[in-house]
Amino acid sequence: MLTRRTLLSATAVAAAWVGAPLVYAQAKPEKTKVSISVGGKAAFYYLPLTITEQLGYFKAEGLEVEISDFAGGSRALQALIGGSADVCSGAYEHTINLQAKNQFLRSIVLQGRAPQIAMGVSTKNLPSYKDLSDLRGKKIGVSAPGSSTNMVANLVLSRGGVKANEVSYVGVGVAAGALTALRSGQVDAISNTDPVMTMLEQKGDVKIISDTRTLKGTQEVFGGVMPAACLYTTQDFVDKNPNTCQALANAIVHGLKWLQTAGPGDIIKTVPETYLLGDRALYLASFDKIREAIATDGLIPTSGPKTALNALSSFSADVKADKIDLSRTYTNEFAQRAKERFKA
């Protein structure tokens, strides 16, 4: 006879079986201590990484993450290639550039769906600026030579008929050093991220000539959706550590989910004080400007890689579009699982 106790026991067993896949679906990371390199962590470009770290989402996935901050994305990339970092938080286009050199890197989760890079000319050094040809022979500040800020500058200049070897690039970082370099006249123009660019713009220090801080601006500059900051690593790391990659993707997508509803006060409370560069109001104004550029679910859009390839091949002789296999530059499998888990 089916007693009440038997029925309750059966119900409990059934519930346990239903719940089991949710509990055991995520296998333990193969590598729990993970080193991540990043080029300019204080920039909004990497805000999802900072939020994920500060809110303890990496730890929640069983990871002990050490983040090493470098002056620019190219140096963070070097740390990955050199073996001192397991994963790089950097610009997606590096996966294409490196494949052109027969080195295969793969993005595992997207942080930004627009480059968030603006280019401006100094109102002090070039008060009579008219067009891009005025930049020939000038010094242009970038986060670090070879970084995504450099790439955007190359693209903008090429469309004005100015070659990269006709200007001088100067590494200025993405924080206070960048502000100082422009305001002191060390550079004549600058290609950089927020909050630096909004601070320079609002104080009248620069005249903006190209802007990818919004989706509309990105469409105008690149002609399509342009994947930006992501976590990328070597194919060997992905092959050997799929559970670790899943844990990293879970953590970042959790951070992206939080950012979708976070208010200005939430951001201020979460990021380190030094990131505000001494001006809380301007920092928040910068956040409002780039908010839509932050990825929502960690997935690289289908058309994004092609947009990046077209941009790179338009000014770089090393990147030949017909020689690049875009399917080897990213995977959405980890982000897709994370999206489903967090309903991002």
TrEMBL record:
Tell where it localizes: Periplasm
| Principal subcellular localisation of the protein | periplasm
Q: Where is the SsuA/THI5-like domain?
A: 45-259
Q: Which PROSITE patterns match?
A: TAT
Keyword tags: Signal
Q: Residue span of the signal peptide, if any?
A: 1-25
> Which InterPro entries is this protein grouped with?
SsuA/THI5 (IPR015168), TAT_signal (IPR006311)
Of which family is this protein a member? Belongs to the bacterial solute-binding protein SsuA/TauA family.
Question: Could you tell me what this protein is called?
Answer: ABC transporter substrate-binding protein
Q: Tell me what organism the protein belongs to.
A: Variovorax dokdonensis
